[in-house]
Amino acid sequence: MTITLTKGSDVLELPEDLLWSDEFSWSDVAQSADRGIEGHLILEAMVRSGGRPITLSGDGNSAWIQRSTLIALKAWAKVPLQLFELDLRGEVFTVVFDHGGEEETRAMAMSPVVDYSDMEDGDFYCSLMLRFLEANPI
Question: Cα separations (Å) of 72 from 6, 34, 77, 79, 125?
C-alpha cells in the first residue's frame, strides 16, 4: 500500500517499504506518580491529545527515493509548524515535521545510493528516515 504526504493540493509519494519504527511505543495515557507528605502514593493520569511520534525509516539498502522528492520534502520541512496529511497505508494522520530539541535530532535523514560529485534530480538516495509528530489542531 502507498504512503503519501500531502500539503494542500501537492502530494508526494514516499517509498512503500518505509517502516513505522515507533508505532507501538507510544502510550495514549500520560501518568505521574508521587508520594504525599505521609508516604501515600499519589497518581495522576490523563489521555494525551497529540504529540505521537511517527518515525518512518528504511533499513540499510531500502526506502529508495529520488533526489527531486527529497528537495521537495526539505522545502516543506523548512516551514515551522506546517501541517501535513500523512496517509500511511490507509490510515491518515495530521502531522508536523519533528525537528526535536537537540541539534543532532533531524526531521530527515538519508544517504546517497552512489556518491556522485554532481547529483541530478533523478538520482536515488536510500535509508530514508522521516520524523513526524501527530498534531491535533486546537
Answer: 11, 47, 9, 12, 14
Q: Is the entire prediction scored with pTM above 0.85?
A: no
Quote the domain boundaries for residue 99.
Answer: 3-25+52-134
Tell me if 111 is assigned to some domain.
yes
If one counts the domains in the chain, the total is 1
Task: Provide the grid cell at 67.
Answer: 533526489
How would DSSP label each residue in 40-75? -EEEEEEE--S--EEEEE--SS---EEHHHHHHHHH
Residues in the chain with pLDDT values less than 70:
103-105, 116, 137-138
- Kindly write down the DSSP assignment for every residue of 106-120, as one continuous string: -SEEEEESS--SS--
